[in-house]
Specification:
The structure is a single chain. The chain has 137 residues and is α+β, with helices and mostly antiparallel strands. It has helices at 5-16, 21-33, 47-64, 72-93; strands at residues 37-46, 97-107, 110-121, 124-135. Strands 1-2-3-4 form a four-stranded antiparallel beta sheet, with helices on both faces. A hairpin with a 2-residue loop joins β3 (110-121) and β4. The longest helix is centred in the middle third of the chain and has 22 residues, at 72-93. The chain is globular, with a radius of gyration of 14 Å. Homohexamer.
C-alpha cells in the first residue's frame, strides 16, 4: 500500500489536531496498520520570529520518528512542506502570536505536514490550518 497523498495528508491533519500525547500515540499505532509513519510536535511564539524554529522542530520530529533519513533531500522535503503550510497561515498571523501543533505523516513517496494553531493575542484567538505536501524518491 504505497502512496495516496490524500490519505497521508489526512493523517498529518489528524496528528496536528490531536489533543494529547496519549491521543497522538494511539493514532500513530492505528496509522502503522495502514503503513503510515507519523509524528507530531508542539510550537508557539510570535509568528515572524518563530518560522525558523517551527521548521526546525518539524525536521527534528520527522527524523526522530524515522519518517525521513539524514539525507539533504529528505530533510529538505520536510522543511519545504512545513514552509508551504506556514505560508498558508502567515497572512492571518502576521505580527501576532501563534501556538499549536505540527502533524507529519509519510507513506511511501508521500510526505505531508499539517500546522494547526491558535492565532492572536492573550485570549482573543482565531484558528488557522496549513497543509504542505512533498513527494520523496
Amino acid at each position: 500500500m504505497i502512496g495516496n497523498s490524500k490519505e497521508v495528508a489526512a493523517a498529518a491533519l489528524k496528528m496536528a489536531i490531536s489533543r494529547s500525547r496519549e491521543e497522538e500515540r494511539a493514532f500513530k499505532e492505528m496509522l502503522r496498520a495502514e503503513e503510515i509513519q507519523a509524528a507530531a510536535v508542539d510550537f508557539g511564539g510570535e509568528m515572524m520570529q518563530s518560522v525558523k524554529t517551527i521548521i526546525e522542530r518539524a525536521v527534528v520530529a520527522a527524523k526522530r520518528e524515522f519518517l525521513v533519513g539524514d539525507t539533504h533531500a529528505e530533510e529538505g522535503a520536510v522543511a519545504g512542506a512545513t514552509h508551504e503550510a506556514l505560508q498558508q497561515i502567515i497572512p492571518k498571523a502576521f505580527g501576532l502570536n501563534l501556538g499549536g501543533k505540527i502533524g507529519l505523516a509519510r507513506r511511501g513517496d508521500h510526505l505531508s505536514v499539517a500546522v494547526f494553531c491558535a492565532v492572536g493575542l492573550l485570549h482573543l484567538n482565531e484558528v488557522a490550518v496549513g497543509l504542505g505536501h512533498r513527494a520523496i524518491k
